[in-house]
TrEMBL record:
Protein source organism: Pseudonocardia eucalypti
InterPro entries: Amidase_CS, Amidase_dom, AS_sf, FAAH2
Domain of life, per lineage: Bacteria
Protein name (Swiss-Prot/TrEMBL): Amidase
UniProt-listed NCBIfam families: PRK06170.1
Length: 483
């Protein structure tokens, strides 16, 4: 029996029943990678010898009567996570040979749960793109259409899952980096509530692996089924034992409902800054219709959502002020001169990006204060609704675009060009206030490309959008392997 596209839950049951061994699973996954990854280029750092050794250890552990959540299950890890003995360079040539001394906390949790790590998956330079290509490892292609991107920055992980290279993967999300690749490749991903899963060791090369509290950025699971997301999130979730873990244990509240007809859902598909392409709008409507058909209360208008335009501006300011601090794009004096030349009435996202690049600490505090007001607005909304359904990006996967100046790139939405980074506004809707969001498949475009949507839930109630994702998977179907 071929196990390539089986879910982690199915594989775990088969392992417990003795229908397959961890060694057989690892060998099958490795053979598929060696056969098919030349065209996709998802696995940038293979670790096959250690994977086979880990699989043998998993089989011995099971023979001793042990059972762990991921015991013997083949997985991949996004390149940006430290793994002792493997390079971690974030695609940056000057750190090509950077070799961390110890595993990231999430890699340690994977291994403690019994997972067999096959290798690391490709990323964009510095994790700073909606595509996945860099000078060291080259370009990762979308398994559905090799002329298109799998998304970024967890594009290698999404492409690996869609190609059958392991049952699970872990990624990270700051600008939709879990959700956009899932949407582009037809798989599942979950952006956890900010701070829910410890991030130590998911760190730029040459920086110390400290237990810091990141702003906006999270780490999270990717899979080929909604239930597998929950399985992997339960392994990943919890505070860092060096800080909050000294005092706190994690207990997530259960999902608000177990039946589709009990959910109250708000559907959003229009944004003031960017149109929603016809293929993505059709995906949102398909999910909304399935919810209504299942008896859920579905609303398409409400006065409760925080102002989407202000939310996009705030997200842009917080995102780009942090990004330029870590990865300068040009000398500060040039940025300040350009920002000073903006008209006072220019409230475009391009202007917000430029102003954010020269933010003062006072500017950031003011933006953060506005964010707290938005968070409170979301609390009011989730007193009336259980989830929000909306796009992840306005289009399915777009053709590779390697223009070295991303500000010059254009995103084609139904034949009309738009600024490349404007597509981040939908991902930012959940990221800016730190809300959990689950990306699910929602059909195909007329060209046959995957289309996904996101289910945004209440803060620290991650099990609510995850349960809704499971129910929708039963209703409309889920992952399909590329032909």
């Amino acid at each position: 029996m071929e196990w390539t596209f089986r879910t982690a839950e199915e594989i775990a049951a088969a392992l417990r029943a003795g229908e397959v061994t961890a060694v057989e699973l690892a060998d099958e996954a490795i053979a598929r990678i060696e056969r098919d990854d030349k065209a996709v280029n998802a696995i940038c750092v293979p670790d096959f010898d250690r994977a086979r050794a880990a699989a043998r250890g998993a089989d011995r552990a099971r023979a001793r009567g042990e059972d762990r959540p991921l015991l013997g299950i083949p997985v991949t890890v996004k390149e940006c996570y430290n793994i002792a003995g493997l390079p971690t360079n974030w695609g940056m040539p000057r750190y090509r040979d950077h070799m961390p001394a110890e595993d990231a906390i999430q890699v340690s949790r994977l291994k403690a749960a019994g997972a067999v790590v096959l290798g690391k998956t490709n990323v964009p330079l510095g994790l700073q793109d909606i595509q996945s290509f860099n000078e060291i490892y080259g370009t990762t292609n979308n398994p559905w259409d090799h002329d298109r991107t799998p998304g970024g920055s967890s594009g290698g992980s999404a492409a690996a899952l869609a190609s059958g290279f392991g049952a699970l993967s872990i990624g990270s999300d700051l600008g939709g980096s879990l959700r956009t690749p899932a949407h582009f490749c037809g798989v599942y991903a979950h952006k956890p509530t900010l701070g829910l899963a410890a991030t130590r060791g998911m760190v730029a090369p040459a920086e110390p692996a400290l237990p810091v509290d990141l702003d906006l950025a999270v780490v999270g699971p990717m899979a080929r089924s909604a239930r597998d997301l929950t399985l992997l999130l339960d392994v990943m979730a919890g505070p860092d034992p060096l800080t909050l873990g000294l005092a706190y244990d994690l207990t997530l509240p259960p999902a608000r409902h177990e039946r589709l007809r009990d959910f109250r859902v708000l559907v959003l598909d229009d944004h003031p800054f960017i149109p929603t392409g016809s293929a993505v709008r059709a995906g949102v409507h398909r999910v909304a219709d399935a919810l209504a058909d299942g008896g859920a209360r579905v609303e398409r208008r409400s006065p409760l959502p925080p102002d989407l335009a202000e939310a996009a501006i705030l997200y842009t300011r917080l995102l780009f002020s942090g990004s330029v601090a870590r990865f300068p794009v040009e000398p500060p004096e040039q940025l300040r001169a350009r920002a000073a030349g903006l008209g006072a009435g220019d409230q475009s996202l391009d202007a917000a990006r430029l102003r954010a690049m020269v933010f003062s600490h006072r500017d950031w505090i003011e933006a953060n204060n506005r964010r707290e007001l938005h968070r409170h607005g979301w609390r009011r909304l989730f007193a009336e609704f259980d989830a929000v359904v909306c796009p992840i990006t306005p289009t399915p996967a777009f053709p590779h675009d390697h223009n070295p100046d991303p500000m010059q790139r254009r995103l084609d939405i139904d034949g009309v060009g738009h600024p490349y980074f404007d597509q981040l506004v939908w991902a930012g809707l959940a990221t800016m206030p730190g809300l959990p969001a689950t990306a699910i498949p929602a059909g195909r475009s007329p060209e046959g490309l995957p289309v996904g949507v996101q289910l945004i839930g209440p803060m620290f109630e991650d099990r609510t959008p995850l349960r809704l994702a499971e129910l929708l998977e039963q209703k409309i179907g889920g992952f399909r392997a590329p032909k």
